[in-house]
Amino acid sequence: PGRARMGLRRLLLRYFPPGIILEYVEGGESKTRPIDLLDLRPDTDVTALVEEIQKGEPLITASCLEHVIHLIRRLQQKLGEKENHKFSLFKVLITHILPLTNVAFNKSGSRFITGSYDRTCKLWDTASGEELRTLEGHKNVVYAIAFNNPYGDKIATGSFDKTCKLWSTETGKCYHTFRGHSAEIVCLSFNPQSTLVATGSMDATAKLWDIEKGEEVATLSGHSAEIIALSFNTLGDKIITGSFDHTVAVWDVGTGRILHTLIGHRAEISSAQFNWDCSLIVTGSMDKTCMLWNAVTGTHLATLTGHRHEVLDVCFDYTGQRVATASADGSARVYNAETKKCIAKLEGHEGEISKVCFNPKGTFILTASSDKTARLWDAATGHCLQVLEGHTDEIFSCAFNYKGDTIITGSKDNSCCIW
């Protein structure tokens, strides 16, 4: 009888990171369950892989085996495709009169937002370069901004006026103003389910806010200095905060309680992130190192060394198998998260690198530097593939869209370039 109530409705492909989403009905309710294929390679034996999957997944019955094999072969094809890595300057947008603070894409990259010292956030159409709306209402610098990806129908803005505002992307209407912090908000993030927004502040706390109700759900107190980085895991059940107090805290989102404090860095934290399957946390610090931690137990696993100056940014690739670091020493590095070995050094920038990110496929790395250029690198070899030139001042932000065919860079010259 349990069988009769569980039925597979359809299978969906997920390209980044590779996987298949099972859509099924259970007790009359529609549900989804992902099968992650993080280790899929162009030469994987798909038939053997599917037999393995079938053993542990009752929803995949004999009747849909061929279909599953077909889908995984499509993922393999995608992995094997040679990508065009030549980006050309598409548009230069002079975005604000006063300095820019941040830029962010929606998932598809069709739109992006900019925050500024002029106290506004602007929404832009990527293809036309047109300004779609100006979100006005903050009484001070709009510093942290985000879309509620993958949906993209809401925007959150965090300001030096100590408030966070939630806006409709479509109408530009302000749904809520979240008040409660006693100092500047410098980082924020939506949870993956888009039900909460988290804000981090110079008041040493982070807060969780309910998007629907427009009210505070929890205050995460425990740090003894400013929180400058925060990040949810993919499940949305945990959040990490990185602070000037040299520690990173892991919190339970449901209860607002602290689960672990990651102690080991000897200077301020610059960035912190979970990997895709929520098993690891990477942290970067002004102490010139990057550390890997077990996200479940909070145990220190490794210290990734090699940089001569502060590590200003760290990130995982989509599958969580590699870590990229960006440093004030003008270089970036790639480490294997399993072996903890440095697999590539990205050398060529003439100034500090403040941002680093992988393209969704994990084949390229993008860096943004104070030398007024962004660079595109081969993630496997560390070769520089391209120098993105055009800005006339420091570049502090860079991002790929989900397809990986569009790049946005934000600079102190007040312009955004679309590549």
Automatic annotation (TrEMBL):
<feature type="repeat" description="WD">
    <location>
        <begin position="262"/>
        <end position="303"/>
    </location>
</feature>
<feature type="repeat" description="WD">
    <location>
        <begin position="93"/>
        <end position="134"/>
    </location>
</feature>
<dbReference type="InterPro" id="IPR015943">
    <property type="entry name" value="WD40/YVTN_repeat-like_dom_sf"/>
</dbReference>
<dbReference type="GO" id="GO:0070286">
    <property type="term" value="P:axonemal dynein complex assembly"/>
</dbReference>
<keyword id="KW-0282">Flagellum</keyword>
<protein>
    <recommendedName>
        <fullName>Dynein assembly factor with WD repeat domains 1</fullName>
    </recommendedName>
</protein>
<keyword id="KW-0853">WD repeat</keyword>
<dbReference type="InterPro" id="IPR036322">
    <property type="entry name" value="WD40_repeat_dom_sf"/>
</dbReference>
<dbReference type="InterPro" id="IPR011044">
    <property type="entry name" value="Quino_amine_DH_bsu"/>
</dbReference>
<dbReference type="Pfam" id="PF00400">
    <property type="entry name" value="WD40"/>
</dbReference>
<dbReference type="InterPro" id="IPR019775">
    <property type="entry name" value="WD40_repeat_CS"/>
</dbReference>
<feature type="repeat" description="WD">
    <location>
        <begin position="304"/>
        <end position="345"/>
    </location>
</feature>
<keyword id="KW-0963">Cytoplasm</keyword>
<dbReference type="InterPro" id="IPR020472">
    <property type="entry name" value="WD40_PAC1"/>
</dbReference>
<feature type="repeat" description="WD">
    <location>
        <begin position="220"/>
        <end position="261"/>
    </location>
</feature>
<feature type="repeat" description="WD">
    <location>
        <begin position="388"/>
        <end position="419"/>
    </location>
</feature>
<dbReference type="InterPro" id="IPR001680">
    <property type="entry name" value="WD40_rpt"/>
</dbReference>
<keyword id="KW-0969">Cilium</keyword>
<keyword id="KW-0966">Cell projection</keyword>
<keyword id="KW-0677">Repeat</keyword>
<feature type="repeat" description="WD">
    <location>
        <begin position="346"/>
        <end position="387"/>
    </location>
</feature>
<feature type="repeat" description="WD">
    <location>
        <begin position="178"/>
        <end position="219"/>
    </location>
</feature>
<keyword id="KW-0206">Cytoskeleton</keyword>
<feature type="repeat" description="WD">
    <location>
        <begin position="135"/>
        <end position="177"/>
    </location>
</feature>
